[in-house]
Design brief:
Blueprint (H helix, E strand, L loop, with lengths): L2 E10 L10 E2 L6 H11 L5 E10 L5 E5 L3 E18 L5 H14 L16 E4 L16 E11 L7 E9 L2 E3 L8 E2 L1
Length: 185
């Protein structure tokens, strides 16, 4: 069953791995961090969240913060995130769905959800009504190449981060699944 979350906050920072000294954020929330938000609402060891799409609702705008190190963060981050979960054969998917919906509706989370770093709390709303999930964005019309984006850790014996070329079409980023030929390590 697919789920949709509206996730937003005044600031967000999803640090890019190539910047070690300064914390420079990706342009949008990477699926790896989006999955952490779903996990914060409800998680069990016999389930795994998968991100299907990310819709960027606000203009991508950076601001600089000066802390002990330099940090380039996103201002007014606002996303619609579509995801679903898979379960092991003996798990009760219906019960997991019920518990996820209860936690999301009541805003009672298993962990504190944040936008990349713990100092940037996330405001989360479950989107339950059916809507046009592919409506074009008036904020980001057309196509935009966002470069390489962290997808997730693979599930192999030596886990490592998988990356994909993020192309935003009318504000929406379609996220490939793990194991896709579109991924790079």
């Amino acid at each position: 069953m697919p789920f949709r979350l509206r996730v937003q906050g005044p600031r967000a920072c999803f640090p890019r791995p190539e910047f070690r000294r300064d914390q420079i954020s990706y342009d949008v929330i990477p699926p790896f961090h989006a999955r952490a938000i779903f996990n914060a609402i409800y998680w069990r060891s016999s389930m795994r969240w998968h991100i299907d799409a990310i819709q960027v609702l606000n203009p991508i705008r950076f601001i600089e913060e000066h802390l002990p190190n330099r940090r380039l963060v996103l201002a007014e981050a606002h996303y619609l995130i579509d995801g679903h979960f898979s379960v092991e054969a003996d798990a009760n998917a219906a019960q997991f769905t019920k518990m996820f919906l209860r936690g999301a509706r009541r805003k009672q989370y298993a962990a504190i959800p944040f936008l990349g770093l713990p100092e940037y709390p996330a405001q989360i709303d479950l989107v339950e009504q059916e809507d046009d999930r592919s409506a074009p964005s008036s904020v980001h019309p057309g196509s935009c190449d966002l470069g390489w984006l962290a997808l997730d850790l693979d599930e192999g014996p030596r886990p490592h981060m998988q990356y994909f070329r993020a192309i935003m079409e009318d504000g929406r980023i379609a996220v490939p699944s793990l194991g896709s030929s579109a991924l790079a390590s």
